[in-house]
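Supplementary Methods, section 5.1.

A reviewer requested that the exact input to the structure prediction be made available. We therefore reproduce it here, unchanged from the version used in the analyses.
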Amino acid sequence: MYFLLILITNLLYSQNNKSNVVFDLLRKNTTDYSIKKADLNLDGKEDIIFYNKWLKGDLMYFFTNNGKQFHLALKTVNFNLDGLFKIEKIESVRKNNKNIVLKIYTISYNKEDIKAIHFISYKNNKWYLQKTQYNAIIIDPLTDKLKKYKCIFNENIVLTEEVNFKLFDTEDQNCVISK
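The structure derived from this sequence is encoded cell-by-cell as follows.
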C-alpha cells in the first residue's frame, strides 16, 4: 500500500512538473504564441489559453488554474487550418445557459471574405466545439455579383488534439444566402 501511494505521488508530481515546464515554455515563446485569459472550466478562476499566432502553427493549449498553479488541461487545434484562417480575437463568455465559455473569431485571408465564430462549451469535464457560424461574402462566378452567406453548424464535438469540423461550403444545406 505504501509503495502504491509513493508511485501515485511520483506520477502526479511528474505530470504537474511536465505541465509547469510546458506552461513556462509557451509563456516565454512570444514569437509563436499568443496568450488569453478566460474562465475555461466555469470555476470562477482565471485560466490561460496559449494559441499559435497566424502562420506559426495550429495548436491551442488550455491551462486551468487550481489556485496555486496552472495545469495543462487540453491540447487541441486553434481553428486556423494551416493559415487559411487567422484568429482575430478570443472572447471569454460569462454565464449562459449553454455552458459556452469561449467564442473564437477567425477570418479568411484569401480572395473570399469568410468570417467564422467557433463556440466552445465546457461540460462534464470536457470542452466541446458546440457550433460554428460562418458569415461570408463571395463573388458568384456565374453572375460576377456578390452573394452573402450565413451557415450554422451545430457540431457538439469533443475537443481533442485532432478535431474535424465543418468548413464553409456554399452548397451545404446549412448555408443560406442572406440579404
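The first strand starts at residue 33 and ends at 38. These observations are discussed further in the main text.
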